[in-house]
Automatic annotation (TrEMBL):
It comes from freshwater metagenome. Keywords: Membrane, Transmembrane, Transmembrane helix. InterPro entries: EamA_dom, EmrE-like. One of its GO terms (cellular component) is membrane. This is Unannotated protein. PANTHER family: ACYL-MALONYL CONDENSING ENZYME-RELATED, SOLUTE CARRIER FAMILY 35 MEMBER G2-RELATED. Residues 2-130, 146-275 form the EamA domain.
Amino acid sequence: MSVFLALLASLIWGTSDFLGGTVSKKLPAVTTLLWANLLVLPGLMIVTVVIGDLQLTPTTIGWGIVAGISGSLGICALYQGLATGVMGVVAPIASTSVAIPVIVGVVTGEAIGAVRGFGIAMAIGGIILAGGPSVREFRSGGHRPLLFAGAAAVLIGIFLVAMANGSQESALSTLVVMRITDVGLLLPMVFILGLTRIPGRSAVPSIAFIGAADLAANALYGFAVHGSQMAITAVLASLYPVVTLLMARRINQERLNREQMIGVTLAMVGVAAVVLG
């Protein structure tokens, strides 16, 4: 079941990231993420209270705050990169975030086995290869989206670890603390940076979908990693760049070169090895 939940999370995350990058071409990424959180936070709190899973403990509060800070800043960096660069390149680079929970999982004693270890290595290598050809843009002035993607990778990796640890006690409670932290961090940023404070009516449905989709993916990842190995679950949940990449190709007609297609193939073979292992 954890495999299915993690893969479903990656599908929803990829769709949300594609739409988030699209909206952020017209609206600041910080504003987009702020309103995405504001629109879903009340519903999340109601659901958590109704089902009796509101557990405000040192574990959920501590890891929820870490997840909120790293997650919100990481997604802002990702959306900014997606809005200013090629989606099919920025998303794969950002997804190297999966290396962080894998390393943490292995260091803390998770036994992944030879087949799954091989699959994890292939998946991470494929993801990097999918974004690697764009590195030469550093020499032509196209490096800013890559910097945003790199920052997103580190921050989202920290988020994956924090969410996994908090979810061992309560995924929903960790999400509640995380979302409250998001709003508390992003709201002053909007005012300090002088950004657009209220999105136009036409953007509200898209932002609401982004918020709901991201929340659903976070919850699915939290449920998937509860009682499971973080290294394996995080790899499966981090396939979202493949979804973003394919949507960018289908909808935006972004061209993918041979190296990127090989990278996507390697990533999928690696995932198969992780699942079958």
